[in-house]
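Lay summary. Proteins are chains of building blocks that fold into shapes, and those shapes determine what they do. In this project we predict the shape from the chain. Here is one chain we studied, written as its sequence of building blocks.
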Amino acid sequence: MMRGVLLCLLAAIVLQNEIESESSDVFSDKGLLNLFNKCYDEYGCFTTLPPFGGTWERPIALLPQSPSTVLTRFFLYTREHHGAIEIGRQKTNLGLGTW
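And here is the predicted shape, written in a compact code that computers can read:
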């Protein structure tokens, strides 16, 4: 009984998250697959399926919000540049050489 309640709660949370998301359509050709997977172009795809969710150790897993909602930013710190250098989404030429 408790497991059924938890599964219903999980389904409601995931469905609400997908409906509120502007980047995906829950009722598309992929159907339920969209409830458990979300892709963001430059950051890749995320899933709530095993091994990241739906396991004994992690029974509930949520998909991340969109990068525009989270305001994702990356900073580069090096020995030569002690201050924070923000790295944009486009290729940045900082004159730092190659990896």
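What the prediction tells us: Residues 2-20 form the longest helix (19 residues).
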